[in-house]
């Protein structure tokens, strides 16, 4: 049996509204938002007395999704500094292909985004950068030049 597709990536956040606004500005579409609680979710994630609000966003092509979860119970805990360096163990960023990287950077700055390093070009193929979004989320941006 083989994998059918990657369904989504989960990011646990403290300010769901701010992070949803950031990803919507990036170009993702809000698919749905609402409370999640009950024994079924407790069994799946291995926590008791769970109450959370979840937002599901999808890329415009419908193939990629980001799930955002804000825990009311139990309280979320921090695993590392919010602006941990790129060589910190674990998932470090989500990369998105974009049409106009400078326009995307400018729009995301309106939501507090800052470049991690700088906008750089890889040969004549891509322009790439990483940005810190809300809550230390790192988003990679790639504009294909060919």
Describe the 3D structure.
This protein has 146 residues and is an alpha+beta fold. The strands form two sheets. Strands 5, 6, 7, 8 and 9 form a five-stranded mixed sheet that branches. It has a four-stranded mixed sheet with strand order 1-4-3-2, with helices on both faces. A hairpin with a 5-residue loop joins strand 8 and strand 9. The N and C termini lie far apart (36 Å).
What is the secondary structure topology, with strand pairs?
Blueprint: E1 9-12, H1 16-26, E2 29-37, H2 39-45, E3 51-58, E4 65-73, E5 94-97, H3 101-109, E6 114-115, E7 120-122, E8 126-132, E9 138-144
Parallel strand pairs: 1-4, 5-9
Antiparallel strand pairs: 2-3, 3-4, 6-8, 7-8, 8-9
Computed structural class: alpha+beta
What composes the largest sheet?
A: 5 strands, mixed
The rough form would be described as globular
* Count of DSSP H/I helices: 3
| Cα distance spanning the termini | 36 Å
* Mean pLDDT, all residues: 92
Q: What kind of oligomer do you see?
A: single chain
Order of helices and strands: EHEHEEEHEEEE
Q: What's the number of extended β-strand segments?
A: 9
Poorly predicted sequence stretches spanning 5 or more consecutive residues: none
Please bin the fraction of helical residues.
Answer: 10-25%
Strand content of the residues, in percent?
35-45%
Over the alpha carbons, how many angstroms does the gyration radius reach?
16 Å
